[in-house]
Amino acid sequence: MKVWGKIKIEDRIQSEVTIVRDTFEDALHAVCDSFDLTKPVVCTKHLGDIQSFHRTVFYPDDFVEAVPFDTLELEIIDIKKKT
Question: How many domains does the chain have?
Answer without folding.
Answer: 1
